[in-house]
Amino acid sequence: MSRAYLSLGSNQDAEWHLREAVDELRARFGPLVLSPVYRTRAVGFDGHDFLNAAAVIETDLDPVELHDWLHALEDAHGRDRSGPRYGDRTLDIDIVLFDDREFVGPGNLRIPRPDLQHAFVLRPLADIAPDVVVPGDGRSLAQCWAAHPDRDVVLETVRLQPPAGI
Fold it and tell me: Which sequence positions are flagged as catalytic?
């Protein structure tokens, strides 16, 4: 089994898509560690705010298989990949770290994921895995966050409400 560190985000019916995605991750991979959910501004375009979180899962899949599984999950949530790279999305889940590996795969699969430079990816991961060392960097996630220029920015947290009737 391997440990994968994921970044989750949505800015279209975000609470519903994130809650459903977490449930689907649990159904496939079992218990997971979930960060607080943060409201952040869209990066790279003018759009609705995003809700962002991170999760740690144990997986029997290799990075390419996991990447494909996550893309299928995004697609099931209506993810539209036909627009610009930066745009509104129902669901975005990326593998940021995978064990202590550095990996370049098909398409845009890069581990560690370059998006780790963004506060919306780094902050939630540092919350739940502060001592994990970033391969190729040598610093822990907590050290990376402590050095980040946005480390003092207060981010609003959002509680994912259970579906109505539960």
Answer: 79, 89, 92, 94
